């Protein structure tokens, strides 16, 4: 339990908070983006913002794979799932994500054969067991998840399983970060880099952020103290006038990532010319599709996919939240029309989404504060 | 599916070295360790598991700290373990 104490210790947190405050130049404010939804979750759950001086603002980035799936892709997936020969398989997180015409859950209730799986390998197993059906796996996720889909495709090929395909929605984090850096509405001073994505891609690929944009990035772990320490490391860089890529999470993230994982992605997938991100719009080279050599496993080529584009609902301000321009509670429908039970936007669906994280924990804190001050 | 959870390798069958038996929070399941090929994994080692695949090797202290953090998540972690329990990777 040594690490638990070391990383959860409130005294340590306060000491770190004090040296964070000491590093801030008077009159200057700092805005850092945590790219990963897992970090957003930790920040709200542990009320980390309360430990930070007022001049430090955290904004929540686009690193929740469920949250960035555009409605049109959900509709396309439901279109596939509605074919009588198809068994659609998906991670549980996708089930409530609304498309233009409802979610997987709605489609399932209407009779589509949609099954939750823990792993793409479970989807492959269903294909093996039910050779008369076409099993489609809804591939979602960043570089953390793409290697699993890639390995499964390789496995399907090696085993000669032909009734298995992937509806590939894998996205890559770097083009999204670049799009945010290029966006005029946001001024960021640095990034808290995603922990698990970096176990795959390593720390080198973030170099352009420091080199071309002059912004520091620190890859961070998920404990509250990891995050405070990362913020500290960012502030030290800024105080010294540096912009570098640093790794706070070296106990899990190797500097060069996982070569095998990158190999299998590269062998089976290639960048799409462009891909739509919910709220962020079209970003070039920001997603993956299967290579021609694996066309037989690509649901978009095995079947007809309409490929329609559906505009986000008018009330939804997920785009602003995903870019960090708005805080979740600043969205007009937050907590009223849009709740985890009846999500309008995707940020409310996944527990990693900024809106759901704030709804679940922020509210609790506010109630607690009210109780305490009664 | 966004979670990566630590598990301890119980056994690596010699005839299928990419498929380890791993224990996660009391649940034993098969996990594909092909992405850590060449790392010389053995029973007793801890790995970080994401959707049925081992992503990286971690030490035991780190694993236990992460498990504690995840258990504190409540529903999100329970859902993940329930999903894992349903897994039949073979
Ligand atoms: S409250 Fe709902 S609609 Fe508004 S930004 Fe969050 S998820 Fe989107």
Can you tag this structure with a few keywords?
heterodimer; A: 374 residues; alpha/beta; Rossmann fold; five-stranded parallel sheet; four-stranded parallel sheet; 40% helix; 17% strand; globular; disordered N terminus; B: 90 residues; alpha+beta; SH3 type barrels; five-stranded antiparallel sheet; 5 strands; 33% strand; binds iron/sulfur cluster
Summarize this structure briefly.
The complex is a heterodimer of chains A (374) and B (90). Chain A is built from 15 helices and 13 strands. Chain A is of the alpha/beta class and 374 residues long.
Return residue spans of chain A where pLDDT drops below 50 for at least 5 consecutive residues.
Answer: 1-7, 366-370
Strand composition percent of chain A: 15-25%
The rough form of chain B would be described as globular
Any idea what the CATH superfamily of the domain at 4-64 and 186-194 and 206-247 in chain A is called? HypD, alpha/beta domain 1
Taking strands numbered 1, 2, ... along the chain, how are they ordered across the largest sheet of chain A? 2-1-7-8-9
Query: Which fold does the CATH topology of the domain at 4-64 and 186-194 and 206-247 in chain A refer to?
Result: Rossmann fold
What binds here, in terms of ligands, is: iron/sulfur cluster
Structural class determined from secondary elements of chain A = alpha/beta
Radius of gyration of chain B: 12 Å
Q: Per CATH, which architecture of the domain at 4-64 and 186-194 and 206-247 in chain A?
A: 3-Layer(aba) Sandwich
Largest interface: A-B, 48 and 38 residues
Number of domains of chain B: 1
Report the end-to-end length of chain B measured between terminal Cα atoms. Answer: 20 Å
Estimated radius of gyration of chain A: 21 Å
């Amino acid at each position: 339990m040594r690490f638990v104490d070391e990383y959860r210790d409130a005294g340590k947190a306060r000491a770190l908070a004090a040296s964070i405050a000491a590093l801030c130049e008077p009159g200057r404010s700092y805005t850092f983006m945590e790219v990963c939804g897992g970090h957003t979750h930790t920040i709200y759950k542990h009320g980390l913002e309360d430990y930070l001086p007022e001049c430090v603002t955290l904004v929540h980035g686009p690193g929740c794979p469920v949250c960035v799936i555009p409605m049109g892709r959900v509709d396309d997936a439901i279109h596939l799932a509605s074919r009588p020969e198809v068994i659609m398989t998906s991670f549980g997180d996708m089930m409530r994500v609304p498309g233009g015409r409802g979610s997987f859950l709605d489609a399932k209730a209407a009779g589509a054969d949609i099954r939750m799986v823990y792993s793409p390998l479970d989807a492959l197993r269903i294909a093996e067991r039910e050779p008369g059906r076409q099993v489609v796996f809804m591939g979602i996720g960043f570089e953390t998840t793409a290697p699993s889909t890639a390995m499964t495709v390789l496995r399907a090929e090696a085993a000669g399983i032909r009734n298995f395909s992937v509806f590939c929605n894998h996205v890559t984090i770097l083009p999204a970060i670049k799009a945010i850096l290029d966006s005029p509405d946001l001024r960021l001073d640095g990034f808290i880099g995603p922990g698990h994505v970096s176990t795959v891609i390593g720390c080198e690929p973030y170099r352009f952020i420091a080199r071309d944009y002059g912004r520091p990035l620190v890859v961070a772990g998920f404990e509250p103290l990891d995050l405070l320490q990362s913020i500290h490391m960012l502030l030290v860089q800024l105080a010294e006038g540096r912009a570098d890529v640093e790794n706070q999470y070296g106990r899990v993230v190797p500097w060069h990532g996982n070569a095998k994982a990158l190999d299998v992605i590269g062998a089976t997938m290639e960048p799409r010319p462009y891909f739509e991100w919910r709220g962020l719009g079209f970003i070039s080279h920001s997603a993956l599709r299967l290579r021609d050599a694996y066309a037989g496993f690509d649901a978009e080529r095995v079947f007809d996919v309409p490929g329609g584009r559906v505009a986000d609902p008018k009330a939804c301000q997920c785009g602003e939240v995903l870019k960090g321009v708005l805080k979740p509670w600043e969205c007009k429908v937050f907590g009223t029309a849009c709740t985890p039970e009846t999500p309008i936007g995707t940020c409310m669906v996944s527990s990693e989404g900024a809106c759901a994280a704030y709804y679940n924990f922020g509210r609790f804190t506010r109630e607690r504060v009210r109780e305490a001050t009664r | 599916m966004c979670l990566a959870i630590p598990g301890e390798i119980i056994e690596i069958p010699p005839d299928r070295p990419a498929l380890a038996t791993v224990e996660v929070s009391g649940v034993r399941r098969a996990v594909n360790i092909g992405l850590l090929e060449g790392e010389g994994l053995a029973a007793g080692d801890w790995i970080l598991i994401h959707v049925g695949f081992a992503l990286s090797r971690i030490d035991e202290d780190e694993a236990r700290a992460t498990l504690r953090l995840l258990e504190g998540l409540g529903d999100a972690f329970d859902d993940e373990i329930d999903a894992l329990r349903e897994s039949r990777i073979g």
